[in-house]
Amino acid sequence: MEWTIDLEATAEADVAQVYDVIVIGGGPAGLSAALYTARAGLRTLVLDKSPRASALGMTERIENYPGVPGALSGLELLDRLREQARHFGADVVTAQVLSSDVTVEPNEVIASTGTYRGRAVIVATGAMARKQALPGEEAFVGRGVSYCATCDAAFFRGQEVAVIGDNDEAVEEALHLGRFASAVHVVLPTGRFKADPELVARLESLDPVRVLPGHRVTAIFGNGRVEGIRLRPRTGGQESVLPVRGVFVYLQGNRPAIDFLHGAVSTDPSGCVRVDEQLQTSVPGVFAAGDVLCRRVRQAVLAAADGALAAMAAERYLSGRQALRSQW
Questions:
Q1: Is 294 in the active site?
Q2: What is the pTM for the complete model shown?
Q3: What's the rounded Cα separation, in Å, for the pair 8 and 10?
């Protein structure tokens, strides 16, 4: 499977290669973990679907991150963390993680760029997943509803599709769909894009694209397969019907984004990952850091601290020691 819309250099998976640590997520927790494991001499891979898809990436102004005087954006801080992790030798790949099997040795992580294998995994995917699906969404998954245009766009060649979302991921996927679909309807529930302006300009220049700002989807409907969506303006007004054959959903919420684990690790009733004092999950060799733990206070510096601790715990696990190293 080929991922064709990456904004950074990427690498296809080499099935013969086994990483020491695979970090899933490129926010402050994941990148801090990566720079610690890479600095410890562990072969480290970071899989990050998009810097702008994280809570920090959406933050316009940060003034209180230790050691960083002055104000900067969340994206600027992530850029610095990413380059620091790369400086120590971490591989950073822009890819969406689709599935995983952490019950086998080595662990397997299936992403849009291929399958990767690692002796330890650190989950740092944040808490931007949704608690509730759109009406009709679950019923049509695999029958017109998709979360990966690079995977499924070819199935909708010459047909009309809808993309629901306003972030970088939604825009990138809509750009890819524009190569296949006869029409791409981009539904913006918030009324405006929150994506890279250059990406938005590229999207809006495409002939098949129609942007629908300020609409919410009230239902996805069909008979066996998706036949359309129902829309209602957020300012009020009558509901309308948009006939489409495919619906690509890129909405976000505040639930831990761990669906790719398929319930392999223990969670609490709210979906937050349970860990021990060294941030190891119920599966040996699988660690978690950052907002997937549902800390009461969410701050980038606390997520980074989680990442550092998870990295040290992963190094301890891989070395077979009983205690963490006190000096890094």
A1: no
A2: 0.74
A3: 6
